[in-house]
Design brief:
Length: 358
């Protein structure tokens, strides 16, 4: 990418890109912002630098990355704060003669932001990343099984959300999104942020789970007692849509083509308008979604890429994270002993999470 864009180097400051460039390490301190606590400079000749102030450098070199991999360039915190372009100028001094520098985040009006190009470099997962992703998916799915053992009707969404986070923490997983919707709130809101409402009959839990920088997304619905007929019908329909998403996610397919396949599946089940009420998901990785499928999406599917699809019909939803491989698509977030719906598309069998009756 640097060569194609005639760049001498790129500054990486986002927490997502730090995790990607370091094999899953963290530069996060203030998690309310996208920027991390330090910078990585990747030069066009492959030389890599860690730029950090004297507050952060000792811990990062001790607990996150090695000076053997990233040459440390330290400065005082006062110097960093004294001028808005201090780090940029420091990075430019490390480039070869006449080198042009870019950055992932819009650090200054004097430097080009190329996050859209960096993102494409992240899409193809390495073997080590795939192993980490599969481990994350397996643990996330297993955590949900434990969650349903310790929650009960009558608890508030906030109480349930806290239990979800506690269980995930046992696996060293941090949820960057935690949604809990009880009863009518599932149908009212596609993103039910937890409230003090008590769960009585039906409960939706959705999580975007992060570990070593990678993020796996999954949703599950449980019902206290007998599952209502209409809910079962809608969930069977959304499973059809989900299966079509999986079938269409193959190497070379564009986001627009995948979206069209799903739109046809919605319409075929009599729920054509539902696709307009929520985004459907897309490529995943170091962000919850690297890109989202839509009618004009020109992004294409690559092998060894992660996807999280989340079709929904008012009151229900299906969501899993999967990986594309030479042999097809593989779901990595399945929950053991959780009911599934089997759907056949083009001679292949796909599985979607069903509703668990407690």
């Amino acid at each position: 990418m640097l060569s194609a864009e005639n760049l001498g180097g790129v500054l990486l400051n986002s927490q997502a890109n730090f995790a990607w460039a370091t094999g899953g390490k963290s530069s996060g301190i203030n998690l309310s912002i996208e920027a991390g606590a330090c910078f990585l400079l990747v030069r066009a000749d492959g030389k890599k630098f860690l730029l950090a102030n004297n507050i952060e450098m000792p811990r990062i070199l001790s607990e996150e990355i090695s000076a053997d991999d990233f040459e440390p360039v330290e400065f005082t915190w006062q110097a960093e704060k004294s001028a808005g372009d201090f780090v940029i100028e420091k990075a430019k001094s490390l480039l070869k003669t006449n080198g042009v520098i870019a950055a992932d985040l819009p650090l200054s009006s004097n430097i080009r932001a190329v996050e859209n190009l960096i993102a494409r470099c992240r899409y193809g997962l390495t073997g080590a990343e795939i192993e980490r992703y599969k481990s994350l998916g397996k643990d996330s799915g297993e955590a949900f099984e434990k969650i349903f053992e310790i929650i009960a009707p009558g608890e508030t969404e906030l109480e349930i959300a806290r239990k979800v986070k506690n269980i995930l923490a046992i696996y060293n997983i941090e949820p960057v999104v935690t949604l809990v919707g009880a009863d009518e709130r599932i149908a009212k809101f596609r993103h039910p942020v937890p409230t003090a409402k008590c769960w009585q009959k039906v409960l939706l839990i959705a999580v975007c789970a992060r570990r070593t920088g990678l993020i796996a997304s999954l949703s599950r619905i449980v019902c206290a007692g007998k599952i209502p007929v209409q809910l079962r019908k809608k969930t069977a329909a959304v499973a059809e849509v989900f299966a079509n998403f999986l079938a269409a996610t193959r190497r070379g397919a564009s986001g627009a083509e995948i979206y069209k396949s799903a739109a046809q599946a919605y319409a075929a089940k009599g729920f054509g308008d539902e696709i307009n009420l929520h985004h459907q998901g897309g490529a995943a990785g170091y962000k919850t979604r690297e890109w989202v499928a839509h009618p004009q999406s020109a992004e294409v599917v690559h092998n060894n890429q992660a996807f999280a699809w989340n079709p929904s019909i008012t009151g229900t939803k299906a969501e899993e994270t999967c990986l594309t491989t030479e042999n097809g698509i593989e779901i990595i977030t399945a929950t053991p002993n959780f009911p599934q719906i089997s759907i056949e598309v083009e001679g292949r069998e796909f599985y979607s999470p069903d509703i668990l009756s407690l």
